[in-house]
Amino acid sequence: xxxxxxxxxxxxxxxxxxxxxxxxxxxxxxxxxxxxxxxxxxxxxxxxxxxxxxxxxxxxxxxxxxxxxxxxxxxxxxxxxxxxxxxxxxxxxxxxxxxxxxxxxxxxxxxxxxxxxxxxxxxxxxxxxxxxxxxxxxxxxxxxxxxxxxxxxxxxxxxxxxxxxxxxxxxxxxxxxxxxxxxxxxxxxxxxxxxxxxxxxxxxxxxxxxxxxxxxxxxxxxxxxxxxxxxxxxxxxxxxxxxxxxxxxxxxxxxxxxxxxxxxxxxxxxxxxxxxxxxxxxxxxxxxxxxxxxxxxxxxxxxxxxxxxxxxxxxxxxxxxxxxxxxxxxxxxxxxxxxxxxxxxxxxxxxxxxxxxxxxxxxxxxxxxxxxxxxxxxxxxxxxxxxxxxxxxxxxxxxxxxxxxxxxxxxxxxxxxxxxxxxxxxxxxxxxxxxxxxxxxxxxxxxxxx
Length: 450
Prior knowledge:
By secondary structure, this protein is α+β, with helices and mostly antiparallel strands. The chain is built from 12 helices and 17 strands. The protein has helices at 2-15, 23-32, 36-40, 65-68, 71-77, 80-109, 133-144, 159-187, 190-193, 361-367, 413-422, 432-449, and strands at residues 197-199, 203-208, 211-220, 226-240, 246-254, 264-265, 271-276, 296-306, 312-319, 324-326, 328-330, 334-337, 340-343, 351-353, 385-386, 392-394, 397-398. It is elongated and about 145 Å long. The model is unreliable at 32-42, 371-414 and 424-432 (pLDDT under 50).
């Protein structure tokens, strides 16, 4: 039933032009292509749901008074039904309180006493036409919401009544300002803009430029852009220290693939965000076999400024091992038609299989001759990385002249030996410094023998 109403509502928005064509087909296709293993296995606990809400329950909070110290934020964070309940109760309580005050003033002044049956005019009342608590309640509503029907009004007979009138007006303005501010903040919250930012239901791991790469797709359904958009990836997993301490929630940052070494993106069209799995990555030892048994969660956080309102927004989602597809890649959804780019959202979450080994990135490096540990190998980045036999690289270049300059750093050791044997018959270039150093060593050796 929930999916039925979702489909009907999405169809109505698509007809009005508020949603791109094919968005409904995207959701239906992703639900249909959901892996069976996620349905058969028991659902794992996750910190961030697919919709972006935090799946954390806070219990046994003893210092409840701290929430009352920030009343405005507490009221904004409440659900709509609770906000409307507080909104209605605030006005009713204020009307009832001041109605009681007006009734007491009339009672103390003698305005509630029956009038003279002979028709003689009595003393001037503090408030005209107040004969009971009901009439006092109606006068309280008229004062606070500035509605005057002309039947009741304050006279100059009681200065205390004038003071109460001023106080009620001020209290009514304060209640209106606070309640209207809460309603505005709830309707203009940043997470409302995040509803039109969509993430692919599944992430993929496939080869890109010869390296295993973790990828997912993100898109914006609105034409108004997200300014200064940045993407942050974090891996949450359970770790155990060398001292035996168990850390249930260990957060590790993941570097997004970007030549500028920054996480900024230009979200003008759906993008595939990638992370190259290299040494130093939390996914370095992840293989196709160990993926199902891993207890981890990859959290995606997209932040930016809404172009129309200038409010900072944040969209979140997460991927569990059951939602990561090994050996698949996203299909292209951008085409060029009539001089402009068109996005087909019906293929937003579609993937295609690719040929990829089931080994982890660590195992692939070991098979390619990359050694680890010791003084020979360092972490990825701008440090030294072992380049086959007898060479290091810094930023992609080898620092040893014995290795061919065109030899890639991940080439097997057998290829290095084969090319070295082919170059044995070629002439060697010897620098003059080496020749001079060798002549000096020969002369010193001759003098020592004499």
